[in-house]
Write a structure and sequence with these properties.
Elements (H helix, E strand, L loop, with lengths): L1 H16 L6 H24 L9 H27 L6 H17 L9 H22 L5 H21 L8
């Protein structure tokens, strides 16, 4: 997972390096994109291992695969946006937002531990729905705003445990 996240950062940096004229949109997209990858790192490596459900081998591998594939899609979307920040085409937007929606839905199985449905309904589903809504209605958003919306959704997941007063063991 560390390699996939590192490759996502490399994708963002390499695509931004190809931009001839740096504007505030490119800077914002790079910073917000990096923030999104840091939030995904935290969610992947700090939140997920606390789950008793994920310790069962039959659930670990599919969840790991889906998480990895979702981060690859997010990285591809970020790279596409960083290369041309003024033009977030439909396919790039859906790769990015679809990857984020899958990533956020993978958090669903985590919710079926001690915190039960409250965790899933308050954590995974709103973030996945938000990513899908950004995919549907984000056509006219600037690239940095689109990625900023995904960052807000990821930060919601990062902060939800504390806001909902869910103990780490239950998550």
């Amino acid at each position: 997972m560390i390699i996939v996240l590192g490759e996502a950062v490399a994708q963002l940096v390499n695509a931004a390096a190809g931009v001839e004229q740096w504007s505030y949109q490119v800077w914002l997209l790079g910073l917000i994109g990096f923030g999104l990858l840091v939030a995904l790192w935290w969610l992947t490596l700090n939140a997920a291992p606390a789950s008793e459900t994920l310790r069962a081998l039959r659930l670990t591998m599919p969840v790991h695969y889906l998480t990895t594939a979702a981060i690859v899609a997010i990285a591809a979307g970020l790279g596409g946006l960083a290369g041309e920040p003024e033009h977030s085409g439909t396919s790039i937007r859906w790769v990015l937002c679809g990857g984020a929606a899958v990533y956020f839905l993978v958090a669903g199985p985590i919710g079926f531990t001690g915190a039960a449905h409250r965790w899933t309904l308050g954590w995974a589903l709103p973030a996945a729905a938000g990513a899908i809504l950004l995919g549907v209605f984000g056509a006219h958003l600037e690239a940095w705003l689109l990625v900023g919306g995904l960052l807000i959704l990821a930060l919601w997941q990062v902060g939800h445990r504390r806001l909902a007063r869910i103990p780490v063991e239950a998550a």
